[in-house]
Amino acid sequence: MNDHAGNPPRAGMDRRRFLTAAGVTAAAATLAVAEGRARAAARPAAAAAAGAFRVPIEDVRHTRTWMAWPDSSSIWGGKLTGVQSDIALIARTIAKYEPVYLCANSAGAARARSLCGPTVTVITTIPVDDCWMRDSGPVFRTDGVGGLDAVGLNFNGWGNKQAHSRDALVAGRIAAHVGVPFTVAGLVGEGGAVEQDGAGTLMATRSSLVNRNRNPGRSQSQIEAALCAAYGATKVIWFDGVVGQDITDDHVDATSRFLAPGKALVQMPLASDNDVYAKDARQQHQILTGATTAGGARMTVEKLQGPDYNKIRSANPDFLASYANYYVCNGAVISGQFGDTRADQAARATLTRLFPGRVVEQLNIDRLGTGGGGIHCVTQQQPVA
């Protein structure tokens, strides 16, 4: 999740800043931290495990996609109904290509089943606070010989900015539901804060992870070591990012993505855009073009042109119009479209070229976008072992 990946400056509230009305109660925050520490003490993620297991790149074959159903009016207010409709649309679309499991609270399950229809499996055994499964869900790893396990990133509500007592437990509960070993990483973070190429290289923003609201007192090198241990990687390509302008502190997955080992994509702003997010996107592109992989190969970088915010449908100041926040599932790439017709068509053409053999589905997710998130933010893949 991210806000304004290379977008013109907007007045008003930043990425889901209005959600703080939901509050991070002292009890909820204390519970989440205590649970995370207890799990970390019980089962620390070991470097030995990371040597055998690795988080694969997203376009490997999936067993299923995991999602979560938002039902909190204290978080979403009057936006809730529209956001639910967008979540259902995403779930139904992905379900055309692979199984979708949607975690819902008991009180919201009937509406979830009604809107999602029979192709989506709704389960009520894993309670949730919100819909951002990319951040709260487990990060699945494979070992190349039929093994599957999962890592939790100690989700703390993006630095205790939102209530998360249920979401802090989602990763472990999904791993238990699947029946795979579960460990916790040696850092606090979110899945949207990290991109992996499946071959030892990661990219991330310092603003999200080298941040005292997640990892106080930890140096970048310490965080990098923990991140590599969790993902089975050996190198991190770091971007500065943007601190404090959105709830995620600038997640990488709305701007830069791996296409393959040694190949990345960056969503670029318009030439006339010069806000902090536009400068961040240009810096990410510059760094990637000069970077090498864990194996020493030079990176090649594709550009994905972002839309003109003066031509999109939404006038919401916190709207996220990120084509790069797409989700790769079995046989398809699911991305947003925002009403800038020329840019929407160009993004479809670019994604079709970059993902040959996959159907590119573009969805109107404007209600979700007003919350500063996109399709990748609300999905989490479970790869085939």
Number of domains: 1
Identify the strand order in the major beta sheet: 3-2-1-16
Q: State the order of secondary-structure elements, H for helix, E for strand.
A: HHEHHEHEHEEHHEEEHHEEEHEEEHEHE
Main sheet makeup: 4 strands, mixed
Strand content: 15-25%
Shape: globular
Binned, the helix content reads 25-40%
Global structural class: alpha/beta
Q: For this structure, what is the CATH homologous superfamily?
A: L-arginine/glycine Amidinotransferase, Chain A
CATH class: Alpha Beta
Low-confidence stretches: 3-51
CATH topology: L-arginine/glycine Amidinotransferase, Chain A
What is the helix tally? 13
Overall pLDDT level = 90
Rg from Cα? 19 Å
Descriptive notes:
The chain has a single domain (17-383), classed as 5-stranded Propeller (L-arginine/glycine Amidinotransferase, Chain A). It has helices spanning 26-42, 47-52, 73-76, 80-94, 109-116, 133-136, 157-160, 167-178, 206-209, 220-231, 276-289, 341-354, 366-369, and strands spanning 62-68, 100-103, 120-123, 139-142, 148-152, 182-184, 194-196, 201-205, 235-239, 256-260, 263-268, 300-305, 327-329, 332-336, 359-363, 380-383. The protein starts with 25 loop residues before the first helix and ends with a strand. The radius of gyration is 19 Å and the shape is globular. The strands form 5 sheets. A 4-stranded mixed beta sheet has the order 3-2-1-16, with helices on one face. A 3-stranded mixed beta sheet has the order 4-5-6. It has a 3-stranded mixed beta sheet with strand order 7-8-9, sandwiched between helices. A hairpin with a 4-residue loop joins strand 7 (194-196) and strand 8 (201-205). The chain is of the alpha/beta class and 385 residues long.
